[in-house]
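Researcher: Please translate sequence to structure tokens.
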Amino acid sequence: MTTTTTWARRLLATIVGVAALEWALAAWAFRDPLDDDAWTALADDIATLPAEEPVVLADDWLGPSARMHVPGLATLDWVARPDLRGWTRFHVVGLGDAWSDELAHDREDLPPPVRVADRDVGPFTITTYEQPAAGTVVDDLTAMDGLEIESTAGRCRGRDEARCSEGTVAPRTAEVDYRPRRCLGLDVRDGTHVRIVRPRAAIGDVLRGHLGFADFNARLRNDAPVALAIEIDGTIAARWTVTDEQGWWPFAVATTPGTHDVAFVIDVGMGGTFGRTGHDAGTTRTVCLEARALQEGN
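Model: Translation complete:
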């Protein structure tokens, strides 16, 4: 074997060794920190938090994996929340981030919450916030149980889903303004007048809620407004006209604490959609309504 061949082999071995070392170092540097152990540690930690305190993600792109691995992050009332009202203390999970654009949007006109604690759980950071101004939810006024619903044609029937001559009114988890929201979904035909009554409701000092329109494709094919009125003990307290351009539109009415009959009156001028063949009255656009009674003052 010549000297040249020997040196060539040694050089090749050196190159291979350096390449193997670089590969090992790169694999270590770019390893996935979100392995099963990391998810398990996060799930165990969240399980120790009080069940009534919401736990949400700052990094929403983690949502599919996080909710698959961590049951505490999959609670539908927190994922499809209407806003941050009633959240006097809550926790945000992130990869170093303690806030998000979605949380900022859902804060609406509340003052910024107070950051009271944070701790690391593997690659995650759990940040705890308190919001004294969030108020207390007295009742969910659009929960199906106990509602009396009637349409233009008369009383709607059904317990878990109200069946009207013009369509249905039922609880939904729907995409509104590109976010999941829990709401009472109205799928009714053109010109339908719907009256939703919560008799003898326990209410606080303010009634708050949202109205929006579900399904991106349906919004593209129907941008007609709807009229919403709120009655307290038979007297109109407020009236608005709402369009899909307003997104997840918030409303509020000051109320007198106590027991009152509360009604939500919705007029759907045009419920169908437009397509290449013209107007289709049979394909409806879902109107989503949610409302809660809150106590915000002392």
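Researcher: Any highlights?
Model: DSSP finds six helices and 19 strands in the chain.
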